[in-house]
Design a protein that fits this description.
By secondary structure, this protein is an all-alpha fold. The chain has 14 helices and no strands.
Length: 427
């Protein structure tokens, strides 16, 4: 079958997941322990950034593969296109975060406190002031709008070229030529802009800390998640009778990618700290020390789930051809890298909010000092509300993706590299 039908049972499942997510978000907001609703806002930021990043990096991978004249993935490239179109929705969620910054609805970022920039004032912070040319609400706002707006535009244009190739085939493959031009632009723009956005959205939460490798680290986490979701989607669709042309050889290559990038992610996980230690930058180790002291279970679980397990499971070539094991690995890695983003976002945002509350601050007046009030479910470790929120965002992501899959043939009929994909063979 080459035409996907979005069945009612699938719609009900995804809508049910969305409903669970909305209920969990409402419960988190209503029963949050602090006046700043830190748990709610960190959950919202966490899932917004995680799924928007997956949509971005899956399009980046798609474009990179096309420009490299790869053809092995072409028969299922519609999955990449469908998931990349989540980006406009992700931009909408990011606008909610932006509205919260301007309206002081949340205190996710320490740098939003304007008193930190008042030279000679009691809260003046030399480090924050030194970064204020880039870390500020104007850059955050317009950087997000322009960057994710361009990403979304490219996703829509590339999808359009792909669909037009189906309905209006040309002997000169003009749509494919246009696709490559836009893909080249997207890769150039996306490579630089994604790093800037990662610094804004995530790294600036721990505003006193920085890492030259952090953007690579977060992007690697997104990429493994995106490939894991692709594998799980293809295995599910094959079980429903679709994508008969997707063979164990295709899963073998996808498995090699998640194996390789899991090792790359681990290299970055270790190297961020190693370079700081080697340079004797003691003040920079606070990022790791805080997570080691107060999030030790997740700190080590992160490494076990996202490196040790995939390394041991996917090491053998034959394993990458077995649907059951690949599905298991994909689910583990997808959830594992969601935990990775939890660990990137929660500690700094929670500490910032606790500083503000401990000093009797309002939404825009955080004070200095390190405050840690003990274990708090949802802020130190995911609870049922976090998992439910995650399921809600996942349900929305899949609902929108499956709806796009149903709008066109699953296999591109006139892609010049379709023959290579259909005869793909790995020795």
């Amino acid at each position: 079958m080459n035409q996907f039908t979005f069945e009612g049972s699938q719609k009900r499942l995804f809508l049910g997941m969305i409903a669970v997510g909305l209920a969990c978000m409402a419960a988190t907001f209503l029963f949050d322990d602090d006046a700043l609703h830190t748990r709610f806002w960190t959950n919202f930021l966490h899932n917004t950034v995680f799924f928007t990043g997956i949509a971005f990096v899956i399009l980046f991978f798609y474009c990179a593969s096309t420009l490299a004249y790869a053809g092995w993935f072409v028969n299922f490239k519609r999955v990449f296109e469908a998931y990349a179109l989540y980006m406009p929705v992700g931009l909408g969620f990011l606008l909610v975060i932006i509205a919260g910054i301007w309206g002081h609805f949340h205190h996710l970022y320490h740098w939003t406190d304007t008193s930190l920039l008042e030279v000679g004032g009691p809260n003046y912070d030399k480090v924050v002031a030194g970064k204020s040319g880039f870390i500020n609400k104007n850059w955050y706002t317009f950087g997000t709008l322009i960057t994710v707006g361009i990403w979304s535009f490219c996703a829509i244009k590339l999808r359009g070229f792909s669909l037009d190739e189906d309905s209006n085939p040309n002997s000169d493959h003009s749509q494919y030529v246009q696709f490559k031009k836009y893909a080249a632009f997207f890769m150039f723009f996306g490579a630089f802009s994604s790093a800037a956005m990662i610094w804004q959205w995530i790294m600036s939460i721990d505003v006193h800390w920085y890492s030259t490798m952090f953007a690579w680290y977060a992007t690697a986490s997104w990429l493994v998640s995106a490939l894991a979701l692709t594998i799980a989607t293809l295995i599910y669709l094959k079980s429903k009778g679709y994508y008969e042309s997707v063979l164990p050889d295709h899963f073998h290559d996808l498995g090699k990618y998640i194996f390789g990038f899991s090792v790359f992610w681990t290299y970055l996980w270790f190297d961020q700290f190693m370079l700081i230690w080697y340079a004797n930058n003691g003040e920079e180790t606070v990022y790791f020390q805080h997570r080691f002291d107060h999030y030790s279970v997740l700190f080590y679980a992160n490494l076990v789930i996202n490196f040790v397990l995939p390394f041991l499971i996917l090491m053998r070539n034959s394993v990458k051809r077995k649907a059951g094991i690949m599905m298991f690995a994909a689910i583990i890695l997808f959830f594992g890298h969601w935990l990775d983003f939890f660990l990137m976002i929660k500690p700094g945002a929670y500490l910032t909010a606790q500083e503000a509350l401990a000093h009797g601050a309002g939404h825009g007046d955080a004070a200095h000092g390190a405050v840690e009030t003990g274990f708090a479910l949802g802020n130190h470790f995911p609870g049922l509300l976090e998992v439910g929120t995650f399921l809600g965002f996942l349900g929305l992501f899949l609902f929108l993706g499956f709806r796009q899959l149903a709008k066109a043939s699953l296999e591109p009929k006139n892609d010049p590299y379709l023959g290579e994909a259909l005869h793909h063979h790995v020795i």
